[in-house]
Design goal:
11 helices; Alkaline Phosphatase, subunit A; alpha/beta
Length: 278
């Protein structure tokens, strides 16, 4: 069974707060979102930390289920009981490529091993510059005719937030750099066979100016946007939307059905017409 999309690009901007997406700071993204569907006040998982959120994106369940909330690996055995999104996509004949900043030798080996266990087809580690990361992702989209999920992970905003504080001058400078890079995605947002999903893993600065792990609306509120030829144009979400809704929506977009254990829902209302396939 094949779904309506040949390519889905999932862009994760680490630490991007919705209130940073303004015409002044992120004009390219702001304009793209205005022509697509978006949920400006979506919710991430709790705790609102990167490892917990990215694991939830990868396996469709909350941290209370997957148990991975720190950069330690004592809970990894629990992951073997889950249904990673890339493995589910592989059953549909869909590849998964993950584009990240360059990792040190041991970290890259470990990340690659974990991603392969989850069903990821390839890890593309390149320059940490947002423009290079987005370029690598777009080259992957253009260079592979097979159906594929391409994940692009950008972490400059999070780095600046931890160093200088969320919404500081340095943070907003990082956001502007990311926006210029995201402009490279614009050409595929009119493609009927492509879907771009943009989100963040968490916000930041809610309790402590340069952190994000405390329970607080500013830490837990994230943007989720969908762009593409089949997306409802100019629509702002009227229903509650969560990070956990992304995995089942991606599966649905490729013609699959989320496993019973997935805790989110398909965001049907993001599309101009319901996605139907034969």
């Amino acid at each position: 069974m094949s779904g309506p999309f040949r390519k889905i690009v999932l862009v994760v901007v680490d630490g991007l707060r919705p209130d940073a997406i303004t015409a002044e700071e992120m004009p390219a993204l702001k304009a793209m979102i205005a022509n697509g569907w978006h949920a400006p006040s979506a919710r991430t998982v709790r705790p609102s930390v990167t490892v917990a959120a990215l694991t939830s994106l990868g396996c469709g369940v909350a941290p209370a289920t997957h148990g991975l909330t720190e950069g330690r690996f004592r809970e990894l055995p629990r992951l073997s009981m889950l249904n990673p999104l890339p493995a589910e996509l592989r059953r549909l004949g869909v590849e998964t490529s993950v584009v990240t900043p360059e990792l040190p030798g041991a970290a890259r080996w470990l990340a690659g091993a974990l991603l392969r266990l989850a069903g990821v087809t390839r890890l593309i580690a390149t320059s940490s510059a947002p423009a290079k990361l987005v370029e690598a992702g777009m080259e992957r989209v253009a260079g592979n005719r097979k159906r594929e999920l391409v994940v692009i992970y950008l972490n400059d905003a999070d780095i600046a937030g931890h160093a200088w504080g969320w919404m500081s001058g340095a943070y907003l400078q990082a956001v502007r750099t990311i926006d210029r890079a995201l402009a490279r995605i614009l050409p595929i947002t009119t493609d009927q066979e492509a879907l771009v999903v943009l989100t963040a893993d968490h916000g930041g600065g809610g309790v402590i100016g340069n952190d994000h792990d405390h329970p607080h609306p500013v830490n837990e509120t994230i943007p989720i946007a969908m762009l593409g030829g089949r997306v409802a144009p100019g629509v702002v979400a009227s229903e509650n939307v969560r990070l956990l809704d992304i995995p089942p929506t991606v599966l649905h977009g490729f013609g699959g059905t989320a496993p019973a254990g997935y805790e989110g829902r398909v965001i049907h209302e993001a599309f101009a017409t319901e996605l139907v396939w034969a």
